[in-house]
Amino acid sequence: MPRFWALFLILLLFFPGLYAQEAPGEDQPDSSFDDDWTEYRPSLYAKGDKTFTITIGTLFPTYFGGIADNDHGIKTVGGTGSLAFSVFFSPNFFLGGEISGSFISTRSGQMLYMVPMGVRAGYQFIYRRFEFPITLMIGGAPQLFIEEDYFGLFVKGGASVFWRFSPDWSFGLNTFWWFVPQWPKDEKSINGNFLELTLSARYHF
Fold it and tell me: Is CB count within 10 Å lower at the N or C end of the chain?
């Protein structure tokens, strides 16, 4: 009988010690909390967060007001690319600048070049790892066609969808509408409209 009680006391002292070693304490992190990026869901941005965006894709001519029968002589597709910098002033609102370049061919084989630049503002929604910025850019665009040049108003607005690949990078698809008017003093005005479909890589810092 004394042997039974001795064995009982040994087991009673052994199991609490074993449990204390396996249970997570203050100095031992709980494995249920995983900091791996695959489990992370990005929250709204903080004031002062910044992004740098590289964009490239296609440009389609649509409607050119002021030209009879919309005969603008431009072919169906061109190319465009841009660099943009943005700063967040609230968890959703951002402001920055953008410079881009584009080219598009005419039926005569000549090229129309444009270099839009200006300020851009936007509001961004976030759902899990998807981000949905709505952006408006206003500025000017130097334009060159053969030996004729023109500088005028440029307005671009649209929406994007980005997937947050990592804390530093996200990749997205953009749809923007360009309004590029030409209002010369001695000639007939033309209101050019283009559709931009592009891909972007965005760096977060």
Answer: N
